[in-house]
Specification:
With about 150 residues, the protein is α+β, with helices and mostly antiparallel strands. The chain has helices at about 25-35, 40-50, 100-115, 130-140, and strands at about 5-10, 15-20, 55-60, 65-75, 85-90, 120-125. About 30% of the residues lie in helices and about 25% in strands.
């Protein structure tokens, strides 16, 4: 469904968008830890690969995962924009920012979602993540007229 895609970086290097492989899970966890401060235990990320509703796309520099986006497929939903994709864990290592890695990953998800007949792509973003707001809006995302509620245990 989602093939590998080659794109050239500003420096002319070829970076490939690929689906996260089991052998890259530790590198992926390091990326998430570095970008978000901490993350789940490695075993929880292994469960993503077992659940077909999740797809984690990554860009690597050698064996090092330097960027990622996770999509979650929701095929049954009550609104007109079904089926839809939820996007989360958009992350790029600070040392690799400014190379349009997050933009390329999100464009990949969006293009494939359109081709595969999805009605929408949604995401949640922190109120004060202004650079992320700019990225999402530049890709065509609009702020939704809804309120997010959480219940933590």
């Amino acid at each position: 469904m989602f093939a590998r895609v080659q794109r050239r970086t500003a420096k002319g290097e070829t970076k490939i968008i690929e689906i996260l492989k089991p052998e890259d899970l530790a590198s992926y966890k390091n990326l998430i830890d570095e970008c978000f401060g901490s993350s789940n235990h490695l075993d929880k990320y292994r469960k993503y690969s077992e659940n077909q509703a999740y797809t984690i796309f990554v860009i690597k520099d050698g064996d090092d995962v330097i960027g990622s986006v996770t999509q979650y497929t929701i095929d049954l939903f009550t609104f007109r924009f079904q089926p839809c994709l939820m996007v989360f864990n958009v992350a790029v290592k600070p040392s690799h920012r400014g190379q349009k890695i997050a933009q390329r990953l999100l464009q990949h998800v969006i293009e494939n979602a359109k081709e595969d007949g999805y009605g929408s792509v949604s995401l949640t973003c922190l109120d004060d993540a202004y650079s992320a707001h700019n990225l999402y809006e530049n890709l065509g995302f609009k702020k939704a007229g809804s309120v997010k509620y959480d219940l933590y245990f």
